Amino acid sequence: MRVLIVDDHALFRDGIRSLLTARGFEVVGEAESGSEAVAKAGPLRPDVILMDVKMPSMGGLAATKAIKTADPAVKIVMLTVSEDDADLFEAIKAGADGYLLKKLRAEEFFDLLEGLERGEAAIPRPLAAKILHEFARSGGSGSSHSGDAGDRLTQREEEILTLLAQGRSNREIGEALTISENTVKFHTKHILDKLHLRSRAEVVAYASRQAKAP
């Protein structure tokens, strides 16, 4: 997995680069601001960008929107000290594929990061619960198409959507429906396309909203 580290603190970048390298990740570059990340993301073509939220020049939220607009396929995980709910919700709305706090233990950090390769959102359960509550309260991600698109989901996609709302991983969904993890990923991609959503986290939020709708 090719990783771009974006953080305005050099010491932190050094530390996370060492951790990633020791676990077999390839660090393809570093940036100290959102604007530098936007400039480097295209040429470096990382699989994953670890993005701080609060940075000078351009913050991580604005950089995430810009990078996702240019390349929706790149995975962006916010790695931050910010526990502000507003930052969490805005990051998911911007298309972030995860939101990790810097106080995480190393093993949990790598478990969540490696889950990206299985098509899972890199979000600890307590933060996922906050996202589900907020999106259910506010009515979703803001997409004007989501409500109508749900009618076009197949029966299998509806089953997967229901399990996503329960916070199940791809492996757990596969076991519950007796299908492979790759099949779960295939259906989840189609759900994203049909609901006009940008990330697994938004799919989970949409699923929760639908489950709670009268």
Layout of secondary structure:
Blueprint: E1 2-6, H1 10-22, E2 26-31, H2 34-44, E3 48-51, H3 60-70, E4 75-80, H4 85-93, E5 98-101, H5 106-115, H6 125-138, H7 146-149, H8 155-165, H9 170-177, H10 181-195, H11 200-212
Parallel strand pairs: 1-2, 1-3, 3-4, 4-5
At CATH level 2, the architecture of the largest domain is 3-Layer(aba) Sandwich
Low-confidence stretches: 139-151
Number of strands: 5
With strands numbered from the N-terminus, the spatial order across the biggest sheet is: 2-1-3-4-5
| SSE succession | EHEHEHEHEHHHHHHH
Cα end-to-end separation: 42 Å
Q: Could you give me the name of the CATH homologous superfamily of the largest domain?
A: Response regulator
Q: Mind describing the biggest β-sheet?
A: 5 strands, parallel
Please characterize this protein's 3D structure:
The protein is an alpha/beta fold and 214 residues long. The protein folds into two domains: 2-123, Response regulator (Rossmann fold); 134-212, Response regulator (Rossmann fold, 3-Layer(aba) Sandwich). 56% of the residues lie in helices and 12% in strands. It has helices spanning 10-22, 34-44, 60-70, 85-93, 106-115, 125-138, 146-149, 155-165, 170-177, 181-195, 200-212, and strands at residues 2-6, 26-31, 48-51, 75-80, 98-101. A five-stranded parallel beta sheet has the order 2-1-3-4-5, with helices on both faces. Helix 3 (60-70) links the parallel strand 3 (48-51) and strand 4. The longest helix is centred in the last third of the chain and has 15 residues, at 181-195. It is globular, with a radius of gyration of 17 Å. Mean pLDDT is 82; it is low at 139-151.
